[in-house]
Give the backbone structure.
Amino acid sequence: MSGGKLFIVATPIGNLEDVTIRAIRILKEASLIAAEDTRHTKKLLDHYGIATPLTSYHEHNEREKAKHLVGRLMEGADIALVSDAGTPGISDPGYRLVKLAVENSIPVIAIPGPSAIISLVAISGLPTDRFTFMGFPPEKESQLKALFKEISAQAHTYIFYESPNRIKATLETMLEGLGDIQAVIGRELTKMHEEVLRGKVTEVIAALANRDIKGEITLVIRTEERAKGDFRPALEGLLASGAKLNDAVKAVAKDFNLPRAEVYREALAIKERIKEAAE
């Protein structure tokens, strides 16, 4: 018996109309559908009258389940892999199954379709000639600060997923580490309560203030190239002339496209030197 094929099938990220004709056909013709959450996927299948058997394939069972599914593929079954929303394998289970299928010379075929990443990038209004998907940012503040420091040196577009419970804290840390850069948030994309927020990080933070944030969130940001030149003389001049520390930091950070945290640290050092010189 000849081996089967593994189909990586993109499914709607919200609106059930966002599924391709080809995806529906593949889901109907497959021997088995491996789904991240069978209850969630069954809603889609019922909507389109698809009776193909379902099996669970998620982050907690993917190591062992991948071996079982590859065994079915080698016996001749065609299997469609779907996630809860969008394209499988993108910050979702799927990598191990695809890798194991490739290692066993099983054809892996993409059935393209919805993606929250591409959807938001396309409408962001930010440069998209080059961009980098970063997945979910670290939860630990120290690791998050280190990440933002790493990506702060060049002009580039980055895309993140983030949870509604953490988005405000992430934006505050972003403001400290990357400055008041351009940001776009897509919440509940393609769904009834879809919302897109655009603006500087401070503007997005203000728009989310005093709100109970719910739903899936995708975030696009545009880091800025640092202005050339040493910012310290300008900062020292402002402080020496009597400017308030926060005002001086804000002005220099804006003029030199620098994170306020970096300028603030230097401002404290300059203030200390000015104090020592006066004693």
Notes: Residues 260-278 form the longest helix (19 residues). The chain has eleven helices and ten strands. Residues 232-278 form one domain.
